[in-house]
Amino acid sequence: MGDLGHSPVLLGENIMSVEMSVKKDLKCILNMPEKIKSEFNSEEEMSNSLPPYSPLEAYSVDKYDACPNNWMNGSDIASSYFVGVKEDYGMWLDFNECFYHTHDVAVVISIQGINPITGQKMVAEKALQLEQYHKKCPIHNVNFKQDRYCEKCGFKWPGQNYLSTTGTPEMMMWLDGFRSSDGQVRQYIITEDKMRGVASQIIGEERVFAIGIAYYLSKNKKPYMLQRHEKRDDFYMEFVGSGVGATQTQPMFFSPLRTSSNWVLSKNQPHFLSLSDLGLRISCNSNPDVIDSQYDSTVYQLSQELTEIEKVEFQALEDNGVNIERFYTLNSSQKLEGEIVKTESVTPVKKLEIGAGALIKQRIYDDPKMISYWEEKPAGMIYINYCDEETKKKIIGGGRRADEKDGFMNGIKVGGL
After folding, report:
1. End-to-end Cα spacing for the chain
2. Which residues, 6+ apart, have CB-to-CB distance to 393 below 8 Å?
3. Cβ atoms within 10 Å of 228's Cβ, excluding its own
């Protein structure tokens, strides 16, 4: 059975972005929902429905001087981010923005240095490279039996080592975990236990503490373009609900698999927003002491502009109320008493592994196109450096890179009189 759909949850969105991107519409969102527990029917493990949306804030590595020295930096075709993760939580990757690209998109993923679809090590010439498997086992170089079954491996191989917009149903391009030998998926879980990490068990010390994503484009443009709903009104149709004095709002998702039809919106309940053209919903509490009740904007600026030697307060709105997370940063290039403050790089507090947890109802769909359909080199790459929450806060506490707001006009007279 295929994907049943990721259901939305109420989220408190702070001023950071959850969206990671490289070039146009080559994007990703990393979600960290609660870990799913394995359940059994007699002796057989049952498959679970997909976990909800729970996007993490993503921070650009290049903008924070305290990032560890071994983290990849961005380039002309690569973007590098970091996120804070928690032990014993799940994880999944959302690639649905790829459907809005002018070309078809194929996505190759590396989880700590191994491909989560094939389990193969992704290093040297095979790092983030597109591969298809039609006739022979890539390990033993012997012909497949029926359904790509390799007798020496003892399991059926997938058709390829990547996800693609050509094979995946529209707006269902996500990956929640490692593909097991029977084609099912086991949830990504965050763990400090080295012996539970999949990459740790397969490639040992060659593993990395990061996620790599390579985006390949089709050689030719698609014959049609999937259109976004740019305005909030396009996402909703309102009608009178059965409850007294209540108005129900039916979220209009791009995919009906993501829709929950029984959400109730009243004066005293949270407002639902569309977030950066996505089918997510975030909740902003309408308490006038916290934030204006109007919700035309998707993200609220809750802090004042950064100035030198000034505290910056980030306020995070969370489920069913406002939970304020406060920390302070100083501009990493500011001048203090005539001297430049130098930020030292942070050493991660913990080394967290990515393991394989409970079974999830999810399929890896075969790409109907041949390998020649795709460009030979990736159009863009995203590196996701994950770390524990304490390390994340230390990095952010080190301050952001100083950018001159006026660019080449800095220091000269500007503005209307």
Report:
1. 66
2. 84, 327
3. 15
CA dist., res. 347 & res. 196, Å (int): 23
The percent helix, strand, coil of the chain (3-state, each to 5) is 10, 30, 55
pLDDT reading at 339 higher than 80: no
- Tokens for 97? 């923005």
Structure tokens at 303: 């802090």
Q: Six-digit token pair at 385? A: 């450096």
136: pLDDT strictly greater than 60: yes
pLDDT of 48 reads 92
Q: Per DSSP, what are the bridge partners of residue 81?
A: 60, 384
Q: Is the pLDDT of residue 74 over 80?
A: yes
DSSP states of 3-18 as a string? ---PPP------SSB-
DSSP 348-366: PS---EEEEEEEES---PP
The phi and psi torsions of 350 (rounded to 5 degrees) equal -130, 155
In the chain, where the domains are located: 20-226+348-397
CA torsion, points 162, 166, 172, 176, in degrees to nearest 10?
A: -10
Dist CA 53 CA 274 (whole Å): 13
For residues 152-164, one letter each, b for 16 or more C-beta atoms within 10 angstroms of the residue's C-beta and e for the rest, the string is ebeeebbbbbbbb
- pLDDT tier, 8 (very low <50, low <70, confident <90, very high otherwise): low
DSSP assignment string, 194-257: GGGBHHHHHHGGG--SEEEEEEEEEEEE-SS-PPP--SGGGGEEEEE-SSTT-EEEEE--SSGG
Give the integer Cα–Cα distance in Å for 153 and 50: 29
CB 207 within 8 A of CB 197: yes
- SS3 (DSSP) at 111: strand
CA count, 13 A, side-chain hemisphere, 74? 17
pTM of the full predicted structure?
Answer: 0.73
Three-class secondary structure of residue 274 per DSSP: strand
Q: How far is CA 252 from the centre of its chain?
A: 22
- CB of 173 closer than 8 Å to CB of 332: no
Q: How many CB atoms lie within 10 A of CB 355?
A: 23
How far apart CA 258 and CA 356 sit, in angstroms, is: 24
